[in-house]
Write a structure and sequence with these properties.
globular, 21% strand, alpha/beta, 120 residues, 6-stranded mixed β-sheet
């Protein structure tokens, strides 16, 4: 399974403990823990609850590694990064349908950020 970062596809070399969160995790239960990595599941590209969970974790002070896993598509990469994700874990079939160049095209996620432009 490739890991997508701002520099493209990479192998998953992480060997530490991972805390997995389902997309239907109650946001009221989230706390900024000191776990090294939290991985949030995206069961469907149309299910955006994972973006909310990531943003809330960052707002509540989580400083560790945050990974989206599952059905995140290249068009959603900039949104994932803005929400607070460090990386995205996709399966091999999605990597074939949406090759690395499509993800890299969206890696300049800080550019064209409407909210940041409006804040001035």
């Amino acid at each position: 399974m490739p890991i997508v970062t701002d520099s493209g596809f990479a192998a998953d070399t992480y060997t530490g403990e991972i805390t997995d969160l389902a997309s239907d995790t109650d946001p009221a239960t989230l706390t900024a823990s000191n776990v090294e990595m939290i991985r949030i599941d995206f069961p469907s590209f149309a299910d955006g609850r994972g973006f909310t969970l990531a943003r809330l974790l960052r707002l509540r002070g989580y400083k560790g590694r945050l990974r989206a896993k599952g059905h995140v598509i290249a068009d959603q990469y900039a949104m994932a990064r803005r929400a607070g994700f460090d990386e995205v874990e996709i399966d091999d079939s999605l990597a074939k349908r949406q090759p690395e160049d499509q993800w890299i095209f969206r890696a300049d996620w800080q550019q064209n950020d409407y909210q940041a432009r409006m804040r001035g």
